[in-house]
């Protein structure tokens, strides 16, 4: 499980000094999930880029686009992002092959260039080095490949496979465009500027936008987070990982209590041996060190076996989350963090399991132990109390796990059976992205939707159809 923590919470984003990159988002006045991580409108980006005093450079990205890539007479929908020409300069990332976008390539007429991810380059173009400089078909138009990004360039939760220039038309910059929020803003903070200062700066700029455009900006604010914090926050898995690691910790405590009880019984059986060692001059500290060393060997062997099993467990986790594109893009493997964590946990378990038996055995009276040769390993009153404490702790931890598991199942049941306000049984949804090459005009899009609905109604078993869309470029229905 710690491989998930290492792959999500401990992995630094790509680029130069990602902690010096701030991501600016809008704050939605309406109650919503992660309302303070909403996108920003194009007019606000253009205005804030010129008027802020905390960023040395500022870029924008529309990271939720879909592109149609045509290769070898087959088309496939690819997760894409449209970014400003300086986006990669702000992040401090360079291309593995070729180059990133140049200044001016986000202007109309100069924007038919594209950057490919390393995975897309391998899967769709067979790692062909000559692809740089060649033309490929995207959204029924020709784009020149200018570069291939490194394999390690992945933003958590935003698994774009290609990047296009972000182009603004006249309609994107008018007053009505304040209602269309589709951009995340990325800025590199000036030396000495903190993220708190950046947050205060953009909160002030958001208030100015409210005063200038009250109809569209009323109640909307702005905030800023460092790039690592933003990626983890929007991925929305921090609480889930905390629950998982807490559960694993309870299971580990139960296992330690069990092993500690076994070592306590073993130390009692070796009472005469330890008494002989003490009579020959072995001090109490030396006996404790011996028993702790034996426990450490056992813990390291168990930790090594756990690491070996986790190698296969990671493959199982990858397979289990492969249906989720964001989770499938995670780099889960036995990295240095996982190995160091396993070593630290093994040593901690050795102390937890061996310390109490070692202290108990080192306090035994030498003369009594040597005389009572015929006695069995029956516990004294103090040892019985220690075992009682261990068993009670195990029962308490197991009870907490059972209660937590029960509450989890109840929560899942309520989520699956909650009243959504509509009948969800036998309901299918689909999204369609229409490119500008063929469906630039609204009339063409309406005609396509009507023809599609007519064909879908002819499918046996389909009862009702409904659609929703807005008439802008790259619109989804």
Structure description:
By secondary structure, the chain is α+β, with helices and mostly antiparallel strands. It folds into three domains: 2-235, no CATH class; 238-416, no CATH class; 424-477. Helices cover 48% and strands 15% of the residues. The chain has 16 helices and eleven strands. It has a six-stranded mixed barrel with strand order 3-4-9-6-8-7. Helix 8 (238-269) packs parallel to helix 12 and helix 10 (284-320) runs antiparallel to helix 12 (336-362). The protein is elongated.
Write the layout of secondary structure elements.
Layout: H1 2-8, E1 21-27, E2 40-41, H2 42-51, E3 55-71, E4 74-83, H3 87-91, E5 97-98, E6 113-116, H4 118-125, E7 135-138, E8 141-148, E9 162-165, E10 181-189, H5 195-212, H6 214-217, E11 221-226, H7 227-235, H8 238-269, H9 271-279, H10 284-320, H11 325-328, H12 336-362, H13 366-371, H14 381-416, H15 436-439, H16 442-456
Parallel strand pairs: 4-9, 6-8
Antiparallel strand pairs: 1-10, 1-11, 2-10, 3-4, 3-7, 3-10, 5-8, 6-9, 7-8
Helix pairs in contact: 8-12, 8-14, 10-12
How is the biggest beta sheet arranged? Answer: 6 strands, mixed, barrel
Overall mean pLDDT: 81
Structural class: alpha+beta
Report the end-to-end length measured between terminal Cα atoms: 39 Å
Helix segment count?
Answer: 16
> Could you give the order of strands across the largest sheet?
3-4-9-6-8-7
Brief rundown of the structure:
By secondary structure, this protein is of the alpha+beta class. 48% of the residues lie in helices and 15% in strands. It is built from 16 helices and eleven strands.
């Amino acid at each position: 499980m710690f491989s998930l923590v290492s792959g999500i919470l401990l992995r630094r984003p790509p680029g130069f000094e990602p902690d010096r990159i701030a991501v600016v988002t809008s704050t939605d006045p309406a109650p919503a999930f992660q309302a303070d991580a909403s996108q920003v409108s194009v007019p606000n980006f253009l205005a804030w880029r010129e008027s802020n005093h905390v960023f040395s450079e500022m870029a924008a990205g529309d990271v939720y686009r879909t592109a149609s890539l045509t290769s070898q007479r087959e088309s496939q929908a690819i997760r894409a992002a449209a970014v400003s020409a300086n986006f990669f300069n702000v992040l401090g990332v360079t291309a593995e092959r070729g180059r990133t976008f140049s200044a001016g390539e986000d202007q109309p007429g100069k924007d038919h260039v594209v950057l490919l991810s390393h995975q897309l380059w391998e899967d769709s173009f067979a790692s062909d080095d000559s692809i740089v400089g060649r033309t490929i078909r995207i959204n029924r138009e020709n784009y020149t490949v200018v570069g291939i990004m490194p394999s390690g360039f992945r933003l958590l939760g935003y698994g774009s496979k290609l990047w296009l220039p972000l182009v603004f038309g006249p309609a994107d910059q008018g007053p009505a465009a304040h209602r269309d929020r589709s951009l995340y803003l990325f800025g590199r903070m000036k030396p000495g500027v903190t993220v708190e200062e950046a947050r205060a700066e953009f909160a002030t700029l958001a208030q100015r936008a409210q005063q200038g455009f009250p109809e569209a900006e009323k109640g909307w604010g702005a905030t800023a987070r460092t790039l690592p914090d933003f990626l983890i926050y929007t991925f929305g898995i921090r609480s889930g990982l905390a629950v998982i690691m807490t559960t694993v910790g309870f299971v580990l405590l139960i296992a330690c209590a069990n092993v500690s009880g076994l070592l306590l019984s073993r130390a009692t059986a070796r009472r005469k041996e330890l008494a002989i060692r003490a009579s020959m001059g072995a001090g109490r500290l030396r006996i404790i060190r011996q028993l702790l060393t034996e426990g450490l060997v056992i813990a390291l062997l168990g930790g090594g076996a756990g690491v070996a099993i986790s190698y296969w467990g990671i493959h199982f986790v990858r397979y289990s989350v492969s249906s989720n594109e964001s989770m499938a893009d995670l780099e889960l493997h036995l990295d240095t963090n996982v190995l160091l964590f396993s070593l630290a946990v093994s040593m901690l378990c050795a102390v937890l399991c061996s310390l109490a038996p070692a202290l108990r055995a080192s306090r035994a009276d030498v003369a009594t132990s040597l005389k009572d040769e015929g006695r069995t390993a029956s516990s004294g009153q103090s040892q019985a109390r220690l075992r009682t404490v261990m068993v009670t702790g195990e029962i308490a931890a197991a009870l907490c796990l059972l209660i937590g598991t029960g509450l989890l199942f109840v929560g899942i049941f309520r989520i699956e059976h909650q009243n959504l306000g509509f009948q969800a049984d036998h309901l299918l949804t689909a999204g369609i992205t229409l490119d500008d090459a063929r469906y630039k005009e609204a009339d063409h899009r309406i005609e396509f939707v009507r023809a599609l609905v007519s064909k879908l109604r002819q499918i046996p078993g389909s009862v009702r159809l409904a659609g929703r869309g807005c008439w802008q470029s790259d619109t989804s229905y």
